[in-house]
């Protein structure tokens, strides 16, 4: 038994407090030390106990603010994996529990911006992450986390595994609340239908009162448990001296429940328990379906470092090899990278020759030849040869990580429509609350005994049920419609922006093209037929490790090749039936450059005789041309990292007037930002990791199911079946959805304008208000379901 406190070392004979740390049961002297230890573990900083050189100070039992005691959040050696240097400032990604809507993100951004030292804050509601950039000299990380906790949210440094667990936990909790609300709604509705329509014959007062008590019992768990999420969200907003859509919802729910409780206990008045249960059930099912779609998208999203190797082979000074963690490599050390391994850090080749697949960074699949003194980058794959690399940058400061930071900063800026929607929502909520308050105050002078009930009628009548459902139900139906067609939306609200897109950016390789070579042209200069030429080429290319060789391997290779030799980045030579053949580049095959051969890139020779020339090119997707035609008359621009000739040729074939070549990720991002600065609403379609920053920056972004995980993480829409033909379908569905939402909002608004005067003047009973509210909501839902057809 541990005889001292694991956290502070104080003698601990009783061992009354315990918790699991580093996979073992540890014992603590007081609740304070236990709470701090549990907070350390839950925030992903458990390694603190492995690295500490001395015991911590004893925590005061009376300290209610745990984060204030966690000074380790400000220690660089503990948080170096989470905190990035952003110029003179620091930057961190945080996972936020309990963030459900744009209002939650708005609240966090506004409240944190008030802290001195905060440079920028960006909330991503879809991924439930918060990106904070701050001046470490003016503000400490522990203070930021403390502020978030005071607002009412739990923040943790982003870690993929914990973020996934958080999604699972919230999804499971919401499903429990939804299931309970649905079960109770059915029971309460059956009881009250009998009362309303007298299905059981002449119901006496005693039986009706009995039904009220049963409804109260059944509705209480819905009001106190299923609806707790609305109350907590409203409380956070009110605590921060703000309002969100959950504020009037919570007021309405509490008012309905309190009025029903009063009516039941006093046997006077009407109860509205069926409205309470149905209201909660409809709101929860809409929120669950929308969150479930976001959750599926979040499962695909991943941290950039999931593309990085965990370990690397370090070459020691005595030339021995040692397996070490890649993140611990230091500048100047030598690393061995064998064929097929991922390069662990940015570095310079000191020994060996090879070819590297840099598609992770460039989006282009062609291998890049690397020789002594050439630079290589973390995350790229060594396809051919063995390399000895000198570390140039630690993994934390790699080019790949810089791309990740570009993506994060792009997420900081919100579209104009999102900001406008936030302002409108707040104005609507304030209007509802003011009207209810004025109604109550007025009726205190007219008829004090009716004031409360008239206010209840106003809250029920103007309750934002139909208006609250108008957008999410339509979006949920559209999400379901598109999911069945292989389209995954990560942000349902992106459909609104799709209808306003007037500027489209397109990646080349892997998006408009298939990202693989085909034989586009074969010119035969010999007496052999085409099949014999392909047979010779296939026989030689089976000894090549270059991706181009895969084009020929599908043909029959029955010839026996002797003394086959591959020259990296050039070609293959060998002897077939006593003759020496070569296949590869013009220089390798010793082909004299001629005008008629200028467009070819692979040659086949026998001795000094040219047998054939091949033009290998990236295959254009069949649907690319149809996509370009469907985007007219929008401004379409081809943005590629490929060479000028290849980009120009593709643009001509697809009739794209505007194109840019040799673009790096930062240059692509600059073009997108410039277009947005000019007032355009930008749609970006891409598939590579190099596209992640522009996919995040664009107002709307689309990627393919076969894209890199980082591209999927950054994009708003994923085409699971990689069919570009789905993009026009998405745009048309977005237009239908926008029209449907406007219809729903128009109906909800018209209903409120019609019903409000009746409720305010006391002409509308709460019962009629409940029925009207329910019918209004059902009409909205019924109209939205048309989007499923």
Description:
With 789 residues, the protein is an alpha+beta fold. It has five domains: 17-74, no CATH class; 80-158, Alpha-Beta Plaits (2-Layer Sandwich), CATH 3.30.70.100; 166-301 and 413-469 and 768-777, no CATH class; 306-397, Calcium-transporting ATPase, cytoplasmic transduction domain A (Distorted Sandwich); 478-512 and 622-734, 3-Layer(aba) Sandwich (Rossmann fold), CATH 3.40.50.1000. Helices cover 47% and strands 20% of the residues. It is built from 27 helices and 29 strands. The strands form six sheets. Strands 17-29-28-27-18-25-26 form a seven-stranded mixed beta sheet, sandwiched between helices.
Any chance you could write out the topology, listing elements then pairs?
Blueprint: E1 17-21, E2 24-28, H1 31-42, H2 48-51, H3 66-69, H4 76-79, E3 83-86, E4 89-97, H5 102-113, E5 118-124, E6 129-134, H6 141-151, E7 154-157, H7 160-197, H8 205-226, H9 228-239, H10 246-266, H11 273-300, E8 311-315, E9 321-325, E10 334-337, E11 346-351, E12 354-357, H12 359-362, E13 368-370, E14 375-376, E15 381-384, E16 387-393, H13 399-410, H14 416-446, H15 448-461, H16 465-483, E17 487-489, H17 494-498, E18 503-506, H18 508-512, E19 513-524, H19 530-541, H20 549-552, E20 562-567, E21 571-576, E22 579-584, E23 602-606, E24 609-620, H21 624-630, E25 635-639, H22 644-654, E26 658-660, H23 665-677, E27 682-685, H24 692-697, E28 700-704, H25 709-714, E29 717-719, H26 726-760, H27 766-784
Parallel strand pairs: 18-25, 18-27, 25-26, 27-28, 28-29
Antiparallel strand pairs: 1-2, 3-4, 4-6, 4-7, 5-6, 8-9, 8-10, 10-16, 11-14, 11-16, 12-13, 12-15, 17-29, 19-24, 20-21, 21-22, 22-23, 23-24
């Amino acid at each position: 038994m541990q005889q001292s406190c694991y956290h502070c070392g104080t003698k601990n004979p009783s061992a009354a407090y315990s918790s699991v740390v580093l996979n073992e049961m540890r014992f603590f002297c007081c609740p304070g030390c236990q709470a701090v230890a549990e907070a350390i573990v839950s925030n992903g900083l458990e390694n603190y106990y492995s690295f500490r050189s001395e015991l911590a100070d004893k925590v005061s039992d009376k300290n209610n603010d745990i984060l204030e005691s966690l000074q380790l959040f400000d220690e660089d050696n503990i948080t170096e994996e989470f905190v990035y240097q952003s110029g003179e400032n620091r930057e961190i990604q945080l996972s936020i529990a309990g963030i459900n809507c744009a209002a939650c993100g708005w609240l966090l951004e506004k409240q944190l911006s008030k802290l001195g030292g905060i440079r920028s804050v960006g909330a991503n509601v879809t991924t439930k992450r918060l990106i904070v950039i701050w001046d470490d000299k003016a503000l400490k990380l522990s203070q930021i986390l403390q502020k978030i906790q005071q607002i009412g949210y739990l923040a943790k440094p982003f870690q993929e595994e914990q973020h996934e667990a958080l999604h699972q936990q919230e999804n499971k909790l919401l499903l429990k609340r939804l299931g309970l609300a649905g079960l109770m709604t059915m029971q309460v509705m059956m009881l009250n239908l009998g009362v309303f329509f007298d299905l059981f014959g002449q119901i006496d007062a005693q039986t009706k009162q009995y039904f009220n008590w049963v409804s109260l019992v059944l509705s209480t768990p819905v009001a106190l448990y299923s609806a707790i999420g609305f109350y907590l969200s409203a409380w956070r907003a009110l605590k921060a001296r703000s309002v969100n859509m959950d504020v009037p919802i919570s007021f309405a729910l509490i008012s309905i429940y309190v009025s029903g409780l009063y009516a039941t206990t006093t046997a006077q008045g009407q109860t509205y328990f069926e409205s309470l249960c149905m209201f909660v059930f409809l709101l929860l099912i809409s929120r669950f379906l929308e969150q479930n779609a976001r959750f599926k998208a979040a499962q695909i999203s991943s941290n950039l470092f999931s593309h990085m190797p965990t370990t690397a082979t370090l070459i020691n000074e005595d030339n021995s090899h040692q397996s070490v963690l890649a993140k611990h490599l230091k500048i100047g050390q030598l690393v061995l990278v064998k064929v097929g391994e991922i390069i662990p850090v940015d570095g310079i080749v000191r020994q060996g020759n090879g070819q590297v697949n840099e598609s992770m960074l460039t989006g282009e699949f062609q291998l890049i030849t690397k020789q002594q003194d050439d630079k290589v980058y973390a995350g790229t794959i060594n396809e051919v040869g063995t390399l000895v690399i000198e570390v140039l940058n630690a993994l934390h400061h790699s080019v790949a990580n810089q791309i990740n930071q570009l993506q994060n900063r792009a997420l900081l800026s919100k579209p104009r429509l999102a900001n406008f929607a936030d302002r409108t929502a707040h104005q609507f909520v304030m209007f509802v609350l003011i009207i209810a308050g004025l109604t109550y105050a007025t009726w205190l002078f007219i008829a004090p005994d009716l004031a409360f009930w008239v206010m209840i009628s106003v809250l029920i009548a103007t309750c934002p049920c139909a208006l609250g459902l108008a957008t999410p139900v339509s979006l949920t139906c559209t999400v379901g419609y598109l999911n069945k067609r292989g389209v995954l939306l990560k942000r349902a609200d992106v459909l609104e922006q799709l209808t306003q897109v007037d500027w489209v950016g397109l990646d080349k390789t892997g998006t408009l093209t298939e990202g693989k070579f085909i034989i586009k042209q074969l010119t035969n200069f010999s007496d052999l037929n085409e099949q014999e030429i392909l047979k010779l080429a296939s026989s030689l290319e089976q000894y090549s490790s270059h991706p181009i060789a895969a084009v020929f391997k599908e043909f029959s290779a029955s010839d026996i090749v002797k003394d086959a030799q591959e020259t990296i980045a050039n070609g293959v030579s060998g002897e077939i039936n006593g003759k020496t053949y070569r296949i590869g580049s013009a220089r390798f095959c010793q082909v004299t450059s001629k005008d008629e051969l200028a467009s070819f890139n692979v040659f086949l020779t026998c001795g000094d005789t040219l047998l054939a020339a091949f033009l290998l090119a990236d295959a254009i997707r069949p649907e690319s041309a149809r996509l370009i035609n469907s985007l007219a008359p929008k401004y379409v621009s081809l943005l590629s990292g490929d060479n000028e000739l290849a980009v120009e040729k593709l643009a001509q074939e697809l009739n794209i007037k505007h194109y840019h070549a040799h673009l790096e990720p930062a240059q692509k991002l600059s073009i997108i930002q410039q277009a947005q600065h000019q007032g355009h609403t930008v749609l970006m379609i891409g598939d590579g990791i190099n596209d992640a920053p522009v996919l995040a920056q664009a107002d709307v972004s689309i990627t393919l199911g076969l894209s890199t995980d980082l591209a999927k993480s950054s994009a708003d829409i994923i085409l699971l079946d990689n069919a570009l033909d789905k993009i026009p379908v998405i745009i048309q569905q977005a237009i239908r959805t926008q029209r449907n939402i406007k219809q729903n909002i128009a109906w909800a608004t018209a209903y409120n304008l019609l019903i409000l005067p009746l409720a305010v003047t006391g002409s509308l009973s709460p019962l009629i208000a409940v029925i009207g509210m329910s019918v209004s909501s059902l009409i909205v839902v019924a109209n939205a379901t048309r989007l499923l057809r």
